[in-house]
Amino acid sequence: MSTTTLAGVPGVRAARRPGRLARDRKWALWGSYAALSVFVVFFLIPPFHMLVTSFKGSAEVSSMVGNPWLVTHPTLANYIELLQAPNFRRFFWNSIKVTSSVVVVTMCISVLAAFSLARMKFWGSSVLATGIFLTYLVPESLLFIPLFQIVSALGLTNNAWAMVPLYLTLSVPFCTWIMIGYFASIPKELDEAALIDGASWMQMLFRIFIPVAMPGIIAATIFAFTVGWGTFLYPMAYLYSSDQMVLTVGIVSDLIRADVFQWGKIMAGSLMAAAPPVIIYAFLMDYYIAGLTAGATKG
Amino acid sequence: MADGATLPIGVPIAARRPGGMQRFMRQRSTIAFAMCVPLLAVVISLVVYPAIYAIYLSMLNKKMTRFVGLDNFSFLLGRPTFQMVIFQSVLFAVSAVILKALLGFVLAHLMQNIPGRQQRLWRGLLLVPWVIPLAMSTLGWWWLFDPSYSAFNWVLNAFGGPSIPWLGATWWARFSVILVNVWYGTPFFLIMYLAALKSVPEQLYEAASIDGAGFWQKLWHVTLPMMRNVISITVLFSLIITFANFDIVRILTNGGPQDQTHLFATYSFQVGIQSGDIPLGAAVSLFMLPILAVFAYFVLRGVNERSKEAM
């Protein structure tokens, strides 16, 4: 790294102080590591503390003595009890059911619309594309009151399935937006060739656009998953019985309902709820970051 | 659909028959529109309609039997609790976004110094706060702030310091909710700024070095102008998201102590859903609309400029 930079600097300078530049670079590197370590510690404190607490038995937590950052008698009891508790399993199942429906429906809607808006164009399509971006900027806290009225009027209050259409308001605009970007970046020659070969629009979409834009599809799917799994306001407002709750609201309201907070269990439940997105990101982070930065910085 | 056979043949035949070409175009735009119908259905029925409905709702009385015009809005503006909500929302959003933007900028520069292979690992570690569902990590923070067994206070006490009422005293509670938001949101800025930094051509820095520019001069004259657009889009976008935040305050303080930490979202939840005054709740959340609209306008302008540059 340092040699290439030195080569770029005029010979005189490089010759005069070669050692100093290299030394500066080394210090900059170690300084960066040190500073980043501080941030990593700050960022990992809450999950670490959650993990420690989740291994504590209820006696150890409620005694409230000793070092809270350490666990003296580690136990998996919290995890086992939760996994055996019917209500927690119910939350998990509801989350899986809602999230997978949101992902499937979002991707169908977004891919079709993005293909149409990026390639086919019709009267008003560019206005619609802008409108989609604006919709993405509408936060859920602006809509949950009128949606509450609409959901009640339809008799869907306290119904986990009602979350699916509601979550679409959060997932569809962004997924469509990034898919428009990915589709628009596919060279026009490709679809002309396909048209000459006699492909229909649908064939073009499924045989060419979807395979070529696979990174975009993965990024959009991860986003839809994130929305479906982590949204808190809508289920908090519309779901109130344990059998209909999804994980986020289930852990927050059902596990905390008791008089004595069972912190070990709450932390274990939160970590189990956080596990699926963390695992997905661990493997597919690059796709998601590419999609996110492309969505916000390019058209 | 009988015309479907002529559709794919495209240019050669269409050139021979202008009428056919016209029909082809018409059909193409019809298909295109049909493909957007599900999207339009979602946007119109679940975003546009509720938004308009919210405006209507906000002009009704509590029992929703009578039209009261702008009474709900003037009632809210006259209430000290709501004035506090406006103050706290602005304080929360502005200070959290400034901190996130600064930390994200510093982090992106630090990451830029790390060689490529290591960068992935560090980036993965730094993204953890942003990957955990916010409601779940806020529960973790809540436990860290617990009044009787706060892990932070334990450390402070170990060093001989006093215990801090993290969520019990007004200004500490305000500090805590901002801290959690900064913790959660900084990784997003890191990602955006890192991507922008990587896109600045190395030659510009080399040229600046040759001209004798120091670190700060390079930062001011090369990095910032090149990142201007991404910085403004990210900041405005984050302002919208932070302004409308619900999860953190709802879980950590639920607006307390004495409604001092309520944001628009949590206050409208309390008024509209918990106390059952739907119109007043709608009015509270609608106060966000003008502010959000201004931010959204500038984000959109930034994105459009950006895509013109890209072309």
What are the key terms here?
heterodimer, A: 299 residues, mainly alpha, MetI-like fold, 2 domains, 15 helices, globular, B: 311 residues, 76% helix, 0% strand, flat, disordered N terminus
Give the topology.
The complex is a heterodimer of chains A (299) and B (311).
Chain A: H1 2-8, H2 11-16, H3 18-54, H4 58-63, H5 77-84, H6 86-120, H7 125-136, H8 140-153, H9 163-184, H10 188-196, H11 201-212, H12 214-230, H13 233-238, H14 247-254, H15 263-297
Helix pairs in contact in A: 3-15, 5-15, 6-9, 6-12, 6-14, 7-9, 9-12, 9-15, 12-15, 14-15
Chain B: H1 11-16, H2 18-57, H3 71-77, H4 80-113, H5 116-126, H6 128-131, H7 134-144, H8 151-158, H9 170-198, H10 202-210, H11 215-243, H12 247-252, H13 264-274, H14 278-286, H15 288-310
Describe the structure.
The complex is a heterodimer of chains A (299) and B (311). With 299 residues, chain A is mainly alpha-helical. Chain A folds into 2 domains: 2-51; 80-297, MetI-like (MetI-like fold), CATH 1.10.3720.10. Chain A has helices spanning 2-8, 11-16, 18-54, 58-63, 77-84, 86-120, 125-136, 140-153, 163-184, 188-196, 201-212, 214-230, 233-238, 247-254, 263-297. In chain A, α7 (125-136) packs across α9 (163-184). The longest helix of chain A has 37 residues, at 18-54. Residues 1-15 of chain A have low confidence and may be disordered. With 311 residues, chain B is mainly α. Chain B has 2 domains: 2-57; 75-310, Orthogonal Bundle (MetI-like fold). In chain B, α4 runs parallel beside α9, α11 crosses α15 (288-310) and α13 runs antiparallel to α14 (278-286). Chain B is flat. Chain B starts with 10 loop residues before the first helix and ends with a helix. Classes of the chains: A mainly alpha (299), B mainly alpha (311). At the A-B interface, α3, α6, α7, α8 and α9 of A face α2, α4, α5, α6 and α7 of B.
